[in-house]
Structures are given as C-alpha cells and as structure tokens.
Amino acid sequence: MKYTRMPIEIESPEEMGYGNIRYNLAESSVRDIYLRDLNVDLKDLVLFYGEHKGIAKLREAIKEESKVVTTDDVLVTTGAATALFIVATTLLNPSDHLIVIRPNYGTNLETPRAINCAMSIIDLKFENNFEMDVNEIRKAIQPNTKLISITNPHNPTGKVFDEKLIQQLVQLAEESNCRLLVDETYRDLNFQTELKPYVAELSDKVISVSSVSKSFGAPGVRIGWLICRDKKLMHDFLAAKEQICLCNSVVDEEIAFHLLHNKKAILEKNHEHIRTNFAYFKHWFAQQEYLEWVEPQAGVVCFPRLKANYKMDAEKFYDTMFSKYGTIVGPGHWFEQNKIYMRIGFGYPTLDELKTGLDNLNECCKSSLA
Questions:
Q1: Which residues, given as ranges, of the chain have pLDDT below 50?
Q2: For the domain 7-33+264-368, what is the CATH code?
Q3: Rounded distance between C-alpha atoms, residue 314 and residue 74, angstroms
C-alpha cells in the first residue's frame, strides 16, 4: 500500500501548534477536556493486555441505548480513524469497487486509494443543499461494488440526512449485496434534534462508526468503535484489529468508559455551549456579506463558500487570516473542494473566541477579496 499524507492532517491545528493559533475555528469538535476534570481514579488499574474486542463494560456502554445491538456487535478501536481503516482494508481489494459520497473524511478516500480500489465519487452540491440523490448512487453500483461510504451527520456541512433517505440506502445495499458504511462520529452532537439510533440497527449490511473524540472533547483518548450485526464480518474485523494493534490501551478504555457512563451530564453541558455559540454564529452569518451557507443541523461545523460576486486569492487569504489575525478555518481543499469553501467550527472556541474569530474572518474578507 502506498500511503499519502492528507492536507487536513498536514495543516491541522496540532501540526501547526496550538500555541501559534489565537482563534481556532478549524476544529470539528467541542473543546478538549482536562483529565483532572473527570475525577477518574486509575491507581488500581492493572496495565494488562485488554480484551481484544474492548473491555465488556465499555462495549455495553456504547450499545446501552440500543435494544437491537449486542456487545458482540461492537468492536472498540484506537479512534474512529482505525475503525475506518479496518473496514476499508477488510472489505476492499484492487479488484473491488466502492462509492464514496464527497465531501467526506479523508481516510474514507485515501485508504481505498492506497489499496488501489476502483472508486466512484459522488459529489454533494451546495446548490442542492448538500442533499444525497439515491438514484445517482444506484446508477453508480457495479457488479463488484463492495461498499458505499457516507457520513451522517455530514462532515463538513452539518447536514443530517432524512431517515427515509437512509432507509433507501440501506435497502440499496441489501439489494446490491454490498455494505453501507455510515461514519456517525458527530451523532452525539445533535444539539437541535433527538438522538437517532445507530444506522447499524437497521441491517446487518450496515457498519456504523463513532468515537469519543468529537462529542466528548477527548481526541487524546484514542477510543472509537465500529458496530455491525454481521457475526462473520465482525470476526474478520477483529482479525484485522489484532494484526494492527492487538488491543487498545486499557487506560484509554477506562477513561472512555467513564465518559460514556457520565454521558448525559457531559453532553447536556456540551450541547448548552454549542447552542449558545450557534445562536451567535447564526446571527453573525445573517449580517455578513461575503459568504453563503447551507445552515447546519447537527455537529459543530458548517461548510460555507464565497459568494459568486467576490474573487479570492486563496493563498493570500488563508495566509493573511493566520499571519495577521491569528485565526484559522478549514480550507476547502481539506475535503478535495475548491478553496472558496471553508469549514468553520463553532463548538471548539469559547463564545468570546468565536466572536473575535468571526470578526477577524469578516475583516480579512473585507481587505482581501475583490
């Protein structure tokens, strides 16, 4: 396999250095938490090889809200990124074909490319409110199609796809004897709507993926998971995990269990912060003149673009944003889109940081755009 570094990782805040950024509007999560705030007592934890599937109480906490999923349907991984890697490398070969809905998280594109698997990319369009067209996906199905890859809530637009549409995709996967991968990393950031069940509940052809990184502000705890009700496939996924990392850090798993055990209180606090920031962000967006958006429905990001009557020198614009204003957003090329698009995160910053960062964005637009 030939690996390629992704722009979203090369230019990520952690690579740039958090200390060099004053107003971080590029993050796609809530604020990172401190371990001290969790009051987790780890002194009696035995540092042994953990259960290969993930400790049982953590798997139980992951599926606790479901009456359909069992603990055996859950595989705990070192972050959602590893779950996605396991899915791609288990299911796909150079002779196979997959369909990817783009924009998408980079791993869902780059790992299949490293495998040299044939790929049909279906781009969501701003003009269509980033809606998926099931008929377009149906037309892309080939005899060797093994996987359809989507994110929901969608990264980077914050779009939540209609339940009827999701059910149509599940039916399409069943009819075509392929798998539907649903990256559900932002599902717990449904600050405006009721939490929906994992899509994996609907069929054994579905694979759901999530983690504690985005919703809980704990990306440093490298814990994610995949859920699938196909026992044979879960056996294969476990075999892949055992060859990649054998088991997870028992320290990370214990902290992740604590987060999920206290999920209600943590998410209520996070949702309150998100709603406050989003209310300001929505008001700001209605007042500014340079950008247009499809309003996000969940998650903590949106994907606006420059209005057609303005021109951008992209390199100058993003460089000025950082060098003069100490502010960053996620440029469109992180998602293989034109740089007139940008992902703006409104869940990570404090309200004051968000206000100043958006003011900086507006001033940079005013001074840089023709």
A1: none
A2: 3.90.1150.10
A3: 43
